[in-house]
Amino acid sequence: MVYYVLNSILKYNSNIRKYRQRIVNKEFGLCTECYRPNTYFMYWCQYCNSKRFEQNFDKWTSGNEHVDKFIRESQKARNYEEILEWIPYDRLRNIEYLAKGGFSTIYKAIWLDGNIHYWRDKKQKWKRGRNKLEQKDYENANKENVTSPLKENEKKGKYVVLKSLNNSSNIHEDFLNEWKIYLQFAYSAKNDNAYIMKIYITQDPKTLNYMIVLQEVIQGIHGDLHSGNLLFNNNIDVYISDFGLSRPVNQSINSDDIYGVIPYIAPEVLCCKPYTKAADIYSFGIIMWEFTSGVSAFNDIPHDFHLISKICKKFRPKIIKDTDPDYVKLMKRCWNSDPNERPTAEELENSFDIWKNKYPIEDKNSARKKVKKSKKPKEPDKPVTENNHPLSCYISRKLNEIICSKSIDIDLDEIDRALREFDNDSCVKDLPDLPKYDR
Ligand SMILES: [Zn+2]
């Protein structure tokens, strides 16, 4: 699984080269209209389809020139995977609240039209992807918490997830640029193993917040690169979401603010040093641990200044017994305190390639390789706690006030003493008072 996640990031260069070559080789055939090479399956011609979208530009608007420009730009796409569409809010039905994240609120809904797949010459209109709706959808329409209920005469639609971006009515151009970079990267990285989710845009007419519309993911949405950002579909495919979106949309890029979820943030970032690629590798190491424990890292302790201080002092999740030694070695390198000691993404990919051959995926339980149990005498192993500590926080948030390193004036020995006692008795109220620091 970890392999799939990384794979989606690393296949970028080779995939884009291969894809361009396929167009040059005319693998998708020639356009019957302009005789240029098609740029994708289903007779997708970038030249002709761009013109079709352009003819439609005056038929819709998001109400924001930056967003309009952003969507129009995307519609010069080489294939249907790359296009964004503006979805009028009144084409959504059965809108139902699911969850609240750090900077967004999640809903599920039915999109009556469905997404564009290809141009139908005979009918002179777009073929869109949608399905026959089910009985339960008409029943759900009557639920109290559902808005824009589905009507009896509406028979087809597509299940989607709406991610409403808090305070996004005045969306930042910087934000959209960052998003554009992400999308370019994401679509190019698409390959057989990792899918980046197709994205559409709409706006909540009440709050005026912009909403990202995602294809529904079966196995739940959690809440940034922390495990809440990985979306699993049938336990087979892994999606990475929220690149560059893990901060308020009206926040400028050049800000010194630190946002995130404490357990996944590299110690150097917590000490206000610049964010580098190596910090992503650190986060990845924590996610690797979660695959062995089944719970979120540090879920049994408060996510506060004490934890930050401990992480800076090399405090890491406890290795779960019987984890493969090679896996442990790699994971520990990822979360090394020295960013230069962490592996690069390429090194990780190589390791996963080796493992993939060493441990091929077997569907049958009996064909799977058995994990070697340790021969050491059994020591009582503290089981992981499934319940999260009430002061833990897995929602991305602004951390400056907690970190505030420049203004912290405290005796490190005193912190150490406090932490030792903290380890002995992980209860907040028993902690000796720490010196106050300026906020
Ligand atoms: Zn054409």
Automatic annotation (TrEMBL):
<dbReference type="GO" id="GO:0004674">
    <property type="term" value="F:protein serine/threonine kinase activity"/>
</dbReference>
<feature type="compositionally biased region" description="Basic residues">
    <location>
        <begin position="367"/>
        <end position="376"/>
    </location>
</feature>
<feature type="domain" description="Protein kinase">
    <location>
        <begin position="92"/>
        <end position="356"/>
    </location>
</feature>
<feature type="region of interest" description="Disordered">
    <location>
        <begin position="366"/>
        <end position="387"/>
    </location>
</feature>
<keyword id="KW-0808">Transferase</keyword>
<keyword id="KW-0418">Kinase</keyword>
<dbReference type="InterPro" id="IPR000719">
    <property type="entry name" value="Prot_kinase_dom"/>
</dbReference>
<dbReference type="InterPro" id="IPR011009">
    <property type="entry name" value="Kinase-like_dom_sf"/>
</dbReference>
<protein>
    <submittedName>
        <fullName>Kinase-like domain-containing protein</fullName>
    </submittedName>
</protein>
<dbReference type="InterPro" id="IPR051681">
    <property type="entry name" value="Ser/Thr_Kinases-Pseudokinases"/>
</dbReference>
<dbReference type="GO" id="GO:0005524">
    <property type="term" value="F:ATP binding"/>
</dbReference>
<dbReference type="Pfam" id="PF07714">
    <property type="entry name" value="PK_Tyr_Ser-Thr"/>
</dbReference>
<dbReference type="InterPro" id="IPR001245">
    <property type="entry name" value="Ser-Thr/Tyr_kinase_cat_dom"/>
</dbReference>
